[in-house]
Automatic annotation (TrEMBL):
Domain GP-PDE intervals: 13-253
Originating organism: Paenibacillus sambharensis
Gene Ontology biological-process entries: lipid metabolic process
GO MF, one example: phosphoric diester hydrolase activity
Entry keyword set: Signal
Protein name: Glycerophosphodiester phosphodiesterase
Pfam families per UniProt: GDPD
Annotated InterPro entries: GP_PDE_dom, PLC-like_Pdiesterase_TIM-brl
Length: 256
């Protein structure tokens, strides 16, 4: 399976396909996720919001405007209305007919064979999203990360703490920008409920990566856009590299 592959002969770093293989296919669609697996990514990253009728769906923006044929807020449309929109055409005519996936469809297609990194997007705008996602994982017996390979991440720490209370066996990731400001005191607090700190690449030092790891957490860096950036982060000891192009990281493996 994709999960069994390695990049550099060790388990590190994992290739995390950011919104799927979103350089090659429309982001956050089944096409992008299948492409990621085909390209050998170890993990699929995806973004989750709730529809008007409370269904978890996979889309990055708060509005459907940029990535679909429709207009309006995800929170203002029912699941049925969202499913009528085309989520592939904006990217390339060959992807016409792609739909906004439900989280259920992604889980039922890829878990637990392929690891998923699920981001809760702006969870405060979607009251009940933690309960909805927790319920879906629980009813599929995917709430134990050791066997499901699922990690849930967000910028919103209180939302993640809520989720961790609902699902104590689930691995949690904290998204951060400016990770260089993190100090041991804060890291120790975060480590009480989180397993990953996932920082943006800008200004991220080897020292900070090591400090996070010394506090018992892993580091998945985003958003890696070139082989040079990937090589620097691998050298710095990152556990995972989030990228829209899983391919270039594989091309590095012989040089590591
Ligand atoms: O996974 C990290 C990254 O996804 C956060 O940024 O905007 O791509 O969701 P964004
Ligand atoms: Ca994301």
């Amino acid at each position: 399976t994709a999960g069994a592959q390695t990049v550099s002969g060790s388990d590190k770093p994992l290739v995390v396909a950011h919104r799927g293989a979103s350089l090659h296919a429309p982001e956050n669609t089944m096409a992008a996720f299948h492409k990621a697996v085909e390209m050998g990514a170890h993990v699929i990253e995806l973004d989750v919001r709730l529809t008007k009728d409370g269904i978890p769906v996979v889309i990055h923006d708060a509005k459907v405007n940029r990535t679909t044929s429709g207009k309006g807020k995800v929170a203002g449309l029912t699941f049925k209305q969202l499913r009528e929109l085309d989520a592939g055409l904006y990217f390339h005519p060959s992807f016409a007919g792609e739909r906004i996936p439900s989280l259920a469809e992604v889980l039922d297609t890829f878990s637990p064979v392929t690891r998923l990194l699920i981001e809760l997007k702006d969870p405060k705008q979607y009251p009940g999203i933690e309960k909805a996602v927790a319920g879906m994982l629980k009813e599929r017996s995917l709430d134990n990360s050791a066997s499901s390979g699922i990690v849930v991440q967000s910028f919103d720490r209180s939302s993640l703490q809520k989720l961790k209370e609902l699902l104590p066996q689930l691995s949690i990731g904290i998204l951060v920008t400016g990770a260089g400001k993190l100090r041991t005191r804060e890291l120790k607090k975060i480590a009480q409920y989180a397993d990953y700190i996932n920082p943006s690449r800008k200004g991220l030092s080897t020292w900070t990566i090591r400090l996070i790891q010394a506090n018992g957490m892993k580091v998945y860096v985003w958003d890696i856009r070139s082989e040079r950036q990937a090589a620097a982060m691998i050298k710095a000891g990152a556990d995972g590299i989030m990228t829209k192009n899983p391919e270039f990281l594989h091309s590095l493996k012989n040089r590591l």
